[in-house]
Amino acid sequence: MLENTAKKYVNDKETDAVRGAYENRARWYYYLVREGLDKGLPLEFARDAMLEAGHFMYEQDYQNVKTIEEFAEVFMNFGMVHAHEAQIVSQSEDSIEISLGYCPLVNAWSKLNAEEAFIGDLCSVCMETYSGLADSLGWSVEQTCAIGRGDGKCTLCFKK
Question: Which CATH number is 71's domain given?
Fold first, then answer.
C-alpha cells in the first residue's frame, strides 16, 4: 500500500485549492494515458509528452535561471512547498536535493482505484517533466525516491 498522507497545511484553504487543482490535472492525465494505452500506444508516448512539458516549463519560468539558488527560488513556489510539502534537503553551488512529502497526483490516482503498479508508472512518467526541465537548463536530475513507488516521499536531486 502506498503511503501518501498530507501532514502539513491540512485544512488550509489556499493549500486545499492548489491540491485540488493538482488532483484535477492528475485525473485528466490518468484518463488520457489510459485511453492512449487502450488504443495500443506504448507508455513511451506519455513519457515523451511529459519530457516536452518540462521543456515548456523551462520556456515559461526558468529561462533566466543560471544558478542553483535562482532555481530554488523559482522551484520552491507555493504549490511545491504547500501542496507537495516540499523542502530543501541540501543545497550547494552545483546541486540541490528536494524532498516532497505528499503528492496530490498520487492521491487522485488512488481515489480512482488505480492499481499501484499503474500509479508507479504514472509517477515515473510525470517525473519526466523534471528531466525535460533539467535538460533545458543543461543540468541533470535524479529521482531517488518516489511516493508512487511506495517510498513514502519523492526525492529529486538537480545537478549542474
Answer: 3.30.1380.20
